[in-house]
Fold:
Amino acid sequence: MRNLISINIKNLRKKNKYTQKQLSELLGVAQTTIANYENGIRIPDAEMLQKMADIFEISLDYLLGREERDSNMKGPAKLSEVYETDLENKENLYRNYLTFLLEGKSKAARGLVIECYEKGLPMGFIYFDIFEKALKEIGSLWESGKIDVWQEHFISEVTLDVMREVKAREKRKKRKSHSVIGVTAGPEQHNIGLKMVLDMLEIEGWNTVYLGSNVPVQSLIKAVDTEKPSLVAISVTMEYHLESAKFLIQAIKEEFKDSPPKIIIGGGAFKNNPELWKTTGADKFSSNTDDMLELMEGS
Structure:
């Protein structure tokens, strides 16, 4: 909520054409205090929040981000207008997105992302500097017991929905000859990172076949035989799924030993040991689209 309050204060001050100094004088505080409020360094107390609500002629709930609009009060017509100042500080966008989702505000989270896209932020930034960073923090919160698994699932599903919308708006490049099959190792359920990479490759003009989780080895072999991909991308988030990844890679190389596709592996399982991927039999480790493009350009 702290991030949303700071965004609201800054947006409302600008909308009402106050300088920080003018607002500080109206509130009886120093200009630096207003700057700290807008940067999220300090949060106003209840009395100060009510004073601001009175000055801006809005409800206190609106200022706190509890409602998108109060029709009886003067103020922004829609929550999306709050997003405009976010682009001035790109590194905080993922935190704002995450804050909305932790508060259960999926509509606001979607609106933030679409506003960013329409303001010119590229799909790659939205995927990897908003979605990926937010999801990594969610994973840490879940591991530490600060959020429940239902919250993790909710946030993942909202993110997938917004990803589809962003991707649908993006213009595809001219089709290339490269193709990729994407799969997670065994029962690995953490597959959004893999989906992001395949989406980016699809926009680059690749033919992509996303298989997701729980794909039997023989089914993967049939998919490779049918699609004849240039690349097979395998994602592993949890270390205990590494054996499943090794088995998949070995099966592909044995079945297609005369002309095997390139095999690239990535995921959170390797974050504490970057060299661990070499034990899997894959051709390269990757955590992003550029690595895949580099692998194919060098082949």
